[in-house]
Amino acid sequence: MAYRLPPLNALRLFEAAARHLSFKRAAQELHLTPSAVSHGIQGLEAWLGVPLFARSHRQLVLTQAGATYFPRVAQILSDIASATESVPGRRPVDRLRVSAAPTFGLRWLIPHLASFQARYPSIDVTLDTVHRQVEFPRDGVDLAIRMGDGAWDGVNADLLVRQWLVPVCAPEVAAGLCGVEDLTGHTLLHVSDVAEDWGAWAAMRGLPAPDLQRGLRFDAIHLAWEAAARGLGIAIGRFPVVEDDLAAGRLVAVLGPPVEAQTAYWLLTDRAALRRPEVAAFRSWLRSELAAPRPGTDAQRPR
After folding, report:
1. Cross-strand bridge partners of residue 168
2. Is the dihedral of CA 182, 185, 186, 191 positive or negative?
3. How many angstroms separate the CA atoms of 70 and 16, rounded?
């Protein structure tokens, strides 16, 4: 059967633009210019003979035809990507795209990537730290590392490492701390978008909750740690991603012992990608590296 198909690359442009309702965001995802996305979709509309978007200066809206077309195109592209990953004997691709939670990527993965490159010099890694839900295989991401409670639907989710919470601060701040009662005289550093922070730590230690209304607030864990390292207050540290800061002496764990968090780091993959050798290599390396003790932190590391 001779299929009458539109240009497949134009379908890819349409799917991304329809999902984002933005030519600009679709262009950023596909590493193109907004003009290239717009012209590609205009070509698809000309081929179909109907407009897919209603355009204005302020917003992009799917027409009725576009809204009907979009879910079917998205599913078909996803099926093609999955079928391609599942081809038996497919030649290994020496490229790996990893999406990591920002703090994990900055504080743990980047400092350890040299070890992966030394072991697998032929595999080129692309790392993004955009904190968003990854849609396999459509996003072109091979593996994602996310913090959560394990409730991941529709993907293969492997528990990477448990998190342990412990207050951390600069050495000069630690010198003035004798016990939990001293917290009232220090600035607390909060992270606004995490489920477990000072309140969770206190509850797990069986302590009265500190005054959660006072202190400095940040939208990312690594920013709170940077502020702590500069002597601005005390933050909640998280093993294992805080280990290199402890080993370097930038931060000191105080008011221990660490307590186990409800959240952990998980490795998410599309099930079809598990058969790829470069994916298997990264998973194996990640597990072995996380299990290895870090110099200078072994005495503090939770057992």
Report:
1. 235, 253
2. positive
3. 10
User: Concatenated DSSP letters for 231-242?
Assistant: TS-BEEEEETTT
| Domains contained in the chain, number | 3
Model pLDDT for residues 42-100, shown as the tens digit of each residue? 999 999 999 999 987 778 999 999 999 999 998 888 888 777 766 766 655 578 999 99
CATH classification of the domain holding 65: 1.10.10.10
8 A C-beta contact, residue 184 and residue 271: no
pLDDT at res. 296: 47
Phi-psi region of 255 (alpha: psi -120 to 50; beta: other; left: phi over 0): left
Task: Return the CATH number at 204.
Answer: 3.40.190.10
Among the listed residues 34, 33, 41, the one whose alpha carbon sits nearest the alpha carbon of residue 14: 41
3 domain-assigned: no
Read off the pLDDT of residues 4-47 as tens digits, 9 standing for 90 and up.
889 889 999 999 999 989 998 888 888 889 999 999 999 999 99
Cβ distance 163 to 263 under 8 Å? yes
Pull the structure tokens for residue 39: 């012209």
Structural domain contains residue 299:
no
- pLDDT for the residue 210: 81
Among 15, 37, 14, 12, residue whose Cα is nearest residue 24? 37
Q: Is the pTM of this model over 0.85?
A: no
Asked whether residue 253 falls in the same domain as residue 168, the answer is yes
